[in-house]
Design a protein that fits this description.
The complex is a heterodimer of chains A (413) and B (387).
Chain A (H helix, E strand, L loop, with lengths): L3 H39 L20 H4 L4 H25 L6 H15 L8 H10 L16 H20 L5 H12 L2 H19 L4 H18 L9 H27 L5 H35 L27 E5 L2 H37 L5 H15 L7 E4 L5
Helix pairs in contact in A: 1-12, 3-4, 6-7, 10-11, 12-13
Chain B lengths: L16 H12 L13 H14 L18 H14 L2 H8 L7 E3 L3 H5 L16 H35 L14 H8 L1 H41 L16 H35 L7 H20 L13 E6 L10 E2 H35 L4 E4 L5
Antiparallel strand pairs in B: 1-2
The chains are: A mainly alpha (413), B mainly alpha (387).
């Protein structure tokens, strides 16, 4: 059994790591659920013949003609749509909305027709406005926002018509719901676009307010306020968050210094100049390491003296990291371009691997700090100690994956 | 809960304390809107706020003395909020953190992950001792968890790839070219689409409020000045409640130990090399002094550049933050954006570096253990194959 303090510390570390892993898994599961559901719609398992994916090098323009629906499919679709229209009419008749018979049918026909033509000119927004007023949603039918037409919608329908066919093949259920699925594509892409355009404008405005004369006055006022708040408080005193940040920086420094040292030690100098360069670099690294160590000792003294609790209980995940991605990313998201699924998978798994290695290294250091002293101080050399040695060896040297064997070397008698 | 700070003018309501506690809590630990985890109780929130402000160095003692039930203290809380606002780009940071993301995003750095360990779980600390086998079991569980994570991630990427390639040509923004999962969901599920639109609407409202705030900011600071003047003067330096820093000091000690070890290694190497060098160079004339100085200058510059990598603000040279994934066949897109191949290259070198570091640590342990147990006769230690 391990001593209490050691147990507590190690348990805390491992549980933190497990919690973090579980949290990542949860988030990933959430995204997976959404993506799976989405693809189930586009790849219905019972109609394998309707593979909507073109090859990755298929030209966009070439796609619609390649999948011109057969006349029979068109006929079916037409019949289906007429059935839906009738259902809607009946419902409207029941609810006494009245008088709008031609609009739905015109709209539905206009949805069907683009599927057959290779290229339809994008409709003007004026038309869209008119159509919006004509197709005011009748009660009960879920029609969303302005069904403005545009090129994107067209393409969507050429992909989406596969789904329609699939559904039509499955069951001719004349529910208005199906038509909504057809209608909704026309509505949705435009509306968030309008919002995001407005957003971009707002973000740009926000960024522009950061500079300018008015901001100088504000900055002065802020600084003065801070100074007043700070009075009576020695400004040289470090706070816990700053200590934490600096320790993190020094840790990064240590690993970068070590990496550089490794590079210098493995380099093979060709001539004396390179040799001298190498020597100077190593001396420089030593000096910097000394400076970092000195700074760390200063921090340690500050922590002890002021009894700073660097990690308050129930720590809030609020580290004000500079990782907003830099100034530009705030208004327009930065892009990451990938060219194949394989590449994306490699990228993602490398990211995870790096994170995992980071964590493993951290745990290794923690375990070393806690367990090695135990092995050296526990004197009773009975089986418990042997078991401890074996376990410690496995944890520290093999990543917990392999175990060594211990044989007692009995004398031959 | 978005602080509509723009609307908060110089009002004199006295009973705003509970709202301000909540506000500070959310400002200090912003959560995404869909985070379903339960919030702590108001008292717990107040305690967390006090603790977080203290660790950031809030310079007023009055905050610590406030009652946590929200019965008073609105002025002090307002001062605390102003202090946070004055110190850094709080508004922009919060806006960026809770913005609606339409694309499929992947972070290219690990900063966010390290900084946000999730909601603080009130852990019941078992004061008992554990067997080392329990630790081994936990480590195994962790390894398994990571393996699962990698598999799920692979599946996710495959699905994303499909969605992106199926919807090629559907996006009105030509530079993006295809839809993201969120955008495709809009099509599939009109109700979800409406929700998304509502979120976009509220984000626009937030941005407009932020702009309003900017316009009136100066007045706010002038007013806060008067509020601060109206406070009774604080007593002399407060005394901290003595707290034994547990894991915090542990981190500091770990780094100190590493740096110490590194320095000793460097010292050993440098001494031998310098001695060897001096022996060789002893007979050389003054002619090579110029080259010597040139080398010194070059090394000095290289090391300064190296130092910048960890200094404050030095990390900005590398790509940070979440990036929107965009699928484009190789060579077709010459536009702005990070290329996956570059990120992969950087990650591979970092992976190699970390693997080397881990192996080195494991080797150190092996040596140390061999030293500790090798002194004991009577046992044969058979290492697992491959060592």
């Amino acid at each position: 059994m391990l001593p209490a303090g050691c147990s507590r510390r190690l348990l805390a570390e491992l549980r933190d790591a497990l919690d973090a892993c579980a949290e990542r898994q949860r988030q990933l599961e959430r995204s997976l659920r959404v993506s799976r559901r989405l693809l189930r719609v586009w790849e219905p398992a019972e109609t394998p013949a309707l593979e909507p994916t073109p090859g990755p090098d298929t030209n966009e323009e070439a796609r619609p003609p390649a999948r011109t629906p057969s006349p029979q499919d068109l006929k079916e679709l037409e019949l289906l749509t007429q059935a839906l229209e009738k259902a809607v009419r009946v419902r409207k008749g029941l609810s006494k909305a009245g008088g709008r018979d031609e609009a739905p049918s015109r709209k539905s026909r206009s949805i069907v027709s683009p599927a057959t033509t290779a290229s339809v000119p994008p409709r003007a927004s004026g038309q869209a406005g008119r159509r919006a007023s004509e197709t005011k949603p009748p009660r009960g039918v879920r029609q969303t926002t302005v069904p403005a037409k545009g090129l994107p919608e067209l393409r969507l329908l050429s992909v989406g018509d596969q789904t329609c066919k699939a559904r039509g093949a499955q069951a001719a259920k004349p529910e208005p719901g199906l038509r909504d699925q057809q209608m909704a594509p026309s509505a949705a892409p435009q509306a968030p676009e309008a919002f995001t355009l407005k957003q971009k404008g707002l973000w740009a405005q926000l960024s522009s307010t950061e500079t300018g004369d008015s901001m100088d006055a504000t900055t002065t006022a802020k600084t003065q306020f801070l100074r007043k708040m700070q009075s009576g408080w020695p400004s040289s005193r470090l706070c816990a968050a700053e200590v934490e940040a600096e320790v993190g920086r020094l840790r990064k420094a240590c690993s970068l210094l070590r990496q550089r040292m490794g590079e210098e030690l493995t380099a093979d100098p060709v001539d004396w100049m390179q040799e001298y360069h190498c020597l100077l670099t190593l001396e420089g690294l030593q000096a910097i390491a000394g400076q970092c160590l000195h700074r760390l000792q200063e921090l340690r003294a500050a922590v002890m003296e002021h009894q700073l609790a660097p990690w308050p209980e129930g720590r809030l995940p609020s580290a004000p990291s500079s990782c907003g991605g830099g100034a530009d990313s705030i208004w327009s998201p930065q892009l990451l371009l990938y060219s194949s699924t394989q590449e994306l998978q490699t990228l993602a798994s490398l990211r995870l691997r790096v994170a995992m290695l980071d964590e493993q290294i951290h745990l290794e250091k923690v375990l070393m700090a806690e367990l090695l002293p135990l092995v050296s101080t526990q004197e009773p050399l009975g089986p418990p100690w042997l078991a401890l040695c074996r376990a410690v060896h496995s944890l520290l040297c093999e990543g917990g994956e392999h175990f060594l064997t211990i044989l007692r070397d009995e004398p031959a008698d | 809960m978005w602080p509509q700070v723009g609307r908060r003018g110089p009002s004199r309501e006295a009973q705003k304390a509970p709202a301000l506690w909540r506000l500070l809590f959310h400002v200090l630990s912003p959560r995404p809107a869909d985070d379903a985890a339960a919030l702590p109780t108001p008292e717990a929130q107040a305690r967390l706020v006090k603790s977080a402000l203290r660790s950031q160095g809030y310079p007023r003692r009055a905050l610590v003395q406030l009652p946590e039930d929200g019965s008073q203290g609105s002025r002090e809380l307002l001062l605390a909020l102003s202090w946070l606002l004055a110190r850094g780009p709080l508004l922009e940071r919060l806006l960026a953190q809770i913005r609606v993301r339409l694309g499929d995003e992947m972070p290219v750095c690990e900063c966010e992950v390290l900084a946000s360990p999730g909601p603080p779980a009130p852990r019941v600390e078992a004061d008992g001792c554990v067997d080392i086998r329990h630790l081994q079991w936990l480590m195994g569980k962790l390894r398994f968890g990571w393996r699962n994570l990698i598999t799920s991630q692979q599946e996710h990427c495959a699905l994303l790839g499909k969605v992106h390639s199926y919807t090629r040509g559907c996006h009105s923004d030509r530079s993006l070219g295809h839809l993201s999962v969120t955008e495709a969901e809009l099509l599939r599920d009109p109700e979800g689409g409406r929700q998304l639109l509502r979120r976009l609407e509220s984000e626009n409202a937030r941005l407009e409020a932020a702009l309003e705030w900017r316009r009136r900011e100066l007045v706010f600071w002038q007013w806060m000045d008067t509020v601060l003047d109206a406070c009774p003067p604080e007593a002399s330096q407060p005394t901290f409640l003595p707290r034994i820093p547990e894991r915090g000091a542990g981190e500091l000690e770990l780094v100190a130990r590493e740096l110490q070890a590194l320095q000793e290694e460097l010292q050993a190497v440098v001494e031998t090399r310098r001695a060897a060098w001096e022996a060789r160079v002893g007979g050389w004339g003054p002619g090579w002094k110029a080259t010597q100085r040139a080398s010194e200058e070059a090394v000095r510059q290289e090391l300064t550049a190296l130092q910048r990598a960890w200094e404050r603000g030095g990390g900005l040279a590398q790509p940070h933050g979440p990036h929107r994934l965009v699928r484009s066949e190789a060579g077709t897109l010459g536009g702005p954006g990070l290329r996956a191949t570059e990120v992969i290259k950087a990650l591979r070198s970092r992976e190699a570096c970390l693997e080397a570091a881990l192996r080195q640590l494991q080797g150190q342990c092996r040596q140390e253990l061999a030293r500790l147990v090798g002194a004991l006769p009577g046992f044969i230690w058979i290492l697992p194959p491959g060592c």
